[in-house]
Amino acid sequence: MKHVIIGAGVAGITAAKTIKEIGKDAEVVVIGDELFLPYKRYLLTDFLCNSIKRDELIFFQIGELKELGIKLRKGEYVKAIDPSKKLIKLHHNEVVHYDKLLIATGGSPGLGLVLQPYKKHIHFYYSLYDNLVLKEKLPDIQKCIVFGDGVSCLDLICVLCNLGKQVTYITRGKRATFALYECDFEGELHEFLEEKGIEILTEDQIVLIDESDHGYKVETLKQKMLTTDIVYAWDYYQPNISCIEGTTIEKKMGILVNARLETSDEHIYAAGDCVEIYHPGIKDYWINFGSPNALEQGAIAGRNMLGQNEEYKIHEAIVFNLMGKSLKARWWK
Amino acid sequence: MKYSEITIRFCGIAGDGIVASGKILAGACANIGLHVMVNNIFSAEIRGLGKSSSTIRFSTSKRYSMGDGLDLLVGMVSKESIIDLRDVKKGGSVIYDISTIGDVAEEDSLISHITPEIQGHGLPIKKLANEATGTNQGKNLVAIGAICYFYSLPPDMFIDQIKSVFAHKGEHIIDVNIKSFRLGYEYFREYYPLNNQFEINEGLEPKALTSGNDAIARGAIDCGLKFFAGYPITPATKIMEIAAKELPKLDGWTLQMEDEIAAIGAVLGAWFAGRRAMTATAGPGLSLMSEMINMSVMAEIPAIIVNVQRGGPATGMPTKVEQGDLNIALYGGAGDSPRVVMAPTNTEECYSGIQLAFDIAEKYQTPVIFLSDLFLGQRIETVTIKENIDRNRCTRKKPTSEQLENFLRYQITDDGVSPHIVPGEPGAVYSITGLEHSVTGNPNYESDVHSMMTAKRFRKFQSMVPDLPHANVLGDETAEIGIASWGSTIGSILEGMEIVKKKGIKTKLIKSIMIHPQREDLFRRFFASCKKIIVPEMNYQGQYAALLKSRYGIKPIEVHIPAVEPVSPLKIAQKIVEANSELSK
User: Cα-flanking dihedrals φ and ψ of residue A206, to 5°?
Assistant: First the structure.
């Protein structure tokens, strides 16, 4: 039985490990689009601050992969899936057949129409690659602009601030809230950040970015003219599901799965940030963001791909550490 | 990552511009003063689209071999490149074409065989080449553009090289090739912006690139070669090609003969007529020449036979390297048939060594077999050729006017060398023959004459010792581990010694271009100072080790490598470590 897993993040690698631990004879191929060995995304900020070494980021070492007999293929994109022939096609037209397929492609930041034209001037703070780029540029950076929403945005602001950089945060909201619905100092987050020296521009957004002699000139909707060494911006965070285009696999924003993490195709499962699971509380599908959820979903998907029957229980929120304070956050409203 | 040395291999099939890729990359690196070595490997089959590869090693410091492993493999054609993945270092990279048309099966896909230790980088090679040139040509320049960005090399060094290489093809070809280069560069800059750094020292003088075959041909021409006769054979043909191009300009001749027997015959004829002459061949050709080399020994007519060794026996492996022809060079003749055998250890010695071979051949009236090999002959590297060779070190012994009155072509002398004069000159009337002969040259089968003439022919080999170059001892003279080897294997040994030096293991190497005869006093002194002696070489039998054992009575650790590729320095290092462990017991 050949199990192919698209995505070498926490969910994909956990599923691969689970399958090989239970079914030693199963053939497992993991295809990831990143250039690196599977790593712990939640430790990227620690790595940026040099609190941990690069080796400590690794989620799964080469030795473990070899020992378990998992074939990992890095830096490769799946451009199409053909469920009728049970095959996937990679970006260089290689065809890989599967018996069971797991889609664990995660999510990624994206830009809306206003920011798209300035894509080449904009950085994301999401992957190890983004992190390495920032790490390389850090010595030359004094002023930073951050525009966006969500926990990773808050994380970036905090790390830049801790590294002694001058940070300007731009938000469309009336206050800096980062879509957190519950935290230890609810309602005080905006002021907490300002006390740390972060400039916050509210009810505003970036509308123009231009290169200057020593960095970038940024114009906002409220016609504020700013200068900066680097611009971090994203409009949304979305599941990576382009590989299912052209298939009949059901989707909304993410791939729709039942509690067993099965998609609408009986041979295809999905797990992690790329899926939407039915939430009985809100009576709709939603995305359970974060590494702990991905870990749990990966393990369940792996077991179910081997024929077991296990259900995933919805978690309401993730727990996030903000400069020593504990935050609970829901990513997807 | 930061690099001061990189090894890159282009791999594909004929028509992919593989060799041109190596040439452009090597030329660009040499132009900015880097040390470069290139090893091209072709398919042995003349017909069809065989696999070919070009491996380029460039460094800020002098290197002696192709080293171990690849930092980057460029798989121009997926399936053909799969086997080369085994040579990619851990942490190394692969560039592969993502613009393949039509489905590719998993087992035929290069990238599907990559292990997690290696990093794959997709590049739409065909697509970008097509965009630049309107055809599939220019694929290699797309890859070179990507490499330029990947290692942060200055683009101008490549642009200049492209202009130079394609100058004869006109502006349009230069433009489309530069466009191909730029598209590859820009693609990598966009998709793989986190690149590596190759540390370049600014302001270095450009270096010249030369192959061993090229150096042999030019060395021979520079020391008076006037006649070349040969029959084409891989990997020696290049020598004849250069001779054919250059000799007519210098009032010389190149003849392609019907076979190798005719070629060596023509060479003997030219020497007999007083012209410096040479032939070049490979193992199968040397086999055919055996009888005429004996003629050279018996008639005491000089001859230069270059043998660029390849894998054998028989047709063997025409495009793979081996040092398997030492025995035939030393002993491949009927009767007691002494001959000089030389083996250059690097490209510089190909140039200077062939000149020494000519001088020895002429002075001592003997055949000289010059043993190069495929790796040394075909590899291209940055070298500094010293052209200040002493032109008067070996001169022909001419008869005095007294001797000419009753000229004895094979006059017995203390040094075994008879005065010699070219037929046609006044007084030069004598016969030569492959039969045993008296001092006049007339056939004679008397026992004492045969003994006397045989001793004379061998005596020359003692006489020539003062004219032989010294054997060099490299490394730490206080070391207890000594290494002796020959030919191109020496380069890998030098790097193997560097590897173990970092581990605190002392070694020394005795290196000589002379295989027979040798400066035996120096070798004996060297071996006496060693507690362990290692003799690595690229053949199954240990042919050089056998020679050293019988000549010096040593009991070395023999490392027999029936090679296909140049010897791995790591393998040499491993043997040294093992010898060191035994010493410590």
Answer: -75, 135
CA distance A74 to chain B (A): 7
pLDDT digits (tens, 9 = 90+) for A246-279: 999 999 999 999 999 999 999 999 999 999 998 7
A82: closest CA of chain B, how far (Å): 13
B77: left (phi over 0), alpha (psi -120 to 50) or beta: beta
Amino acid at B483: I
Q: By CB neighbour count within 10 A (0-12 exposed, 13-18 middle, 19+ buried), where does A125 fall?
A: buried
CATH 3.40.50.970 assigned to B210-382: yes
Average pLDDT, chain B: 94
Residues of A in contact with B105 (CB under 8 A): 94-95
Query: Is the predicted pLDDT of residue A333 greater than 60, yes or no?
Result: no
A69: contact with B, CB 8 A cutoff? no
Taking CB atoms and an 8 Å limit, are A37 and B109 in contact across chains?
no
pTM of the model: 0.89
* pLDDT (tens digit per residue) in A15-26: 999 999 999 899
Average pLDDT over residues B345-359: 96
pLDDT for residue B48 is more than 70: no
CATH fit for domain B472-584, picks 3.90.180.10, 3.40.50.920, 3.90.1300.10, 3.30.450.20: 3.40.50.920
This complex has an ipTM of 0.84
Amino acid at B423: P
- Restricting to A residues 34-53, those with a Cβ less than 8 Å away from any Cβ of B are 35, 37
Nearest residue to A240 via CA among A225, A227, A251 = A251
Please answer yes or no on whether B194 and A62 come within 8 Å at the CB atom: no
A187 touching B (Cβ < 8 Å): no
Instruction: Put the strands of the sheet holding A143-147 in their side by side order.
Output: A122-123, A230-233, A143-147, A166-170, A199-201
- Which of these, B455, B495, B237, lies nearest to B336 by C-alpha position? B455
Q: Domains along chain A?
A: 2-106+240-315 (3.50.50.60), 109-237 (3.50.50.60)
- Is any Cβ of chain A less than 8 angstroms from the Cβ of B1? no
CB contact under 8 A, A76 and B111: yes
- Which residues from chain A sit within 8 angstroms of residue B100, using beta carbons? 92-93
Instruction: Name residues whose C-beta falls within 8 Å of residue B528's C-beta, 6 or more positions apart in sequence.
Output: none
Question: For residues B99 and B131, what is the distance between their CA atoms, to the nearest angstrom?
Answer: 12
Q: Does A96 touch chain B (CB under 8 A)?
A: yes
Would you give the distance in Å from CA B23 to the centre of its chain? Answer: 17
Contact B491, B65 (CB under 8 A): yes
Inter-chain residue contact B99 with A72, CB threshold 8 Å: no
Strand order through the sheet with A182-183: A182-183, A325-329, A318-322
Does the CB of A4 have a partner CB in chain B at under 8 Å? no
Closest residue on chain A to B112 (Cα) = A73
pLDDT band at A183 (very low <50, low <70, confident <90, very high): low
Chain A positions touching B101 (Cβ under 8 A) are 93
